[in-house]
Amino acid sequence: MKARLRQDAIVRSLRRNGTSTVADLAEAVGASRRTVLRDISALRDEGFVIHSEPGRGGGLQLDPQSLQTTARLSVAEVFALLISVASMRAAGNLPFSDLADAGLSKIEAALPPDKLRDLRRFLGCLYVGQLSPQVDISDMGAMDPTLLPAFETAFLQRQHLRFQYRDAKGILSHRNVEPQAMLILPPLWYLVAWDPARNDFRHFRMDRISTPAIDEGATFQRRHVPFEDHVRPVRDLSR
User: Fold this and answer.
1) Residue 5, burial from CB neighbour count under 10 angstroms (0-12, 13-18, 19+)
2) Pair 100, 55 in one domain
3) How many CA atoms lie within 13 A of 5 on its CB side?
4) Which of 53, 130, 157, 171 is a good FRET partner for 74, with 20 to 30 A between their CA atoms?
């Protein structure tokens, strides 16, 4: 069991049982006593208040009011929060914007340096604009939840992305592209990619993409995307 999953299981066990011994927790998560003690130390560092009661009948207790104070979010999870706020702001529909920005700033500040670096690189690929009123959105569907994790790998590692795409006429095709940017034109979201098969940029509506997968192998170089004047990098949005 991975450390994060194991530590989550320890917290759940302590909340459920009230008091547990190290041996009980070790058996519950399938780890050694030494590993559980390291996990307890890590959880305390993250803000959980875990008391140790020595002697017969003692054990470990989690303070019922204890909350995690260190963010344990992935780059994709934080990015999902940021782009949701950015898209609402672009649409002019972001209530309590000051509170939202303050909360996101705290989450960013809690990220380890490597994740913060990846997050900023990821944000550098995000653009926001206004959708033309002539665009038909009557067939807009839900986006595949596996898109964002796949995008994270493709953009950060500059790996080709393959997927199945359904065009406006419902025709399915298989694509293998070089992801260059993500474009939000509320309420539509687009993947902007260089398509080697067509030797040109293509915009793919994200709600029409399915079964995304990384095509591991040769990497590609970032290209300059010729956006229209109304499109802005999300980092330039005023806060």
Assistant:
1) exposed
2) no
3) 6
4) 130
Round to whole Å and give the CA distance between 160 and 218: 8
Rounded distance, CA 68 to CA 78, Å? 16
Main-chain phi, psi angles of 65, to 5 degrees? -95, 5
pLDDT digits (tens, 9 = 90+) for 45-70: 777 889 888 766 678 988 877 665 55
Quote the distance between the C-alpha of residue 94 and its chain's center: 20
- Domain encompassing residue 23: 3-62
Residue numbers in the chain where pLDDT is lower than 50: 238-239
Containing H/E element for 154?
A: helix 147-157
Residues 88 and 25 in one domain: no
CATH number (domain holding residue 32)? 1.10.10.10
Q: Is there a single domain that holds both residue 87 and residue 201? A: yes
Please list, in sequence order, all residues whose beta carbon lies within 8 angstroms of the beta carbon of residue 12, skipping any fewer than 6 positions away: none
pLDDT at 238: 44
Cα-based angle 104, 106, 107 (whole degrees, multiple of 5): 65
Q: Which amino acid is at 54?
A: P
- The answer for residues whose C-beta is within 8 angstroms of residue 46's C-beta and 6 or more apart is 68, 69, 70, 72
How far is Cα 125 from Cα 145, in angstroms, rounded to an integer?
19
SS3 8: helix
Picking from 34, 151, 19, 17, the residue whose alpha carbon sits closest to that of residue 6 is 34
208 in Cβ contact with 164 (< 8 Å): no
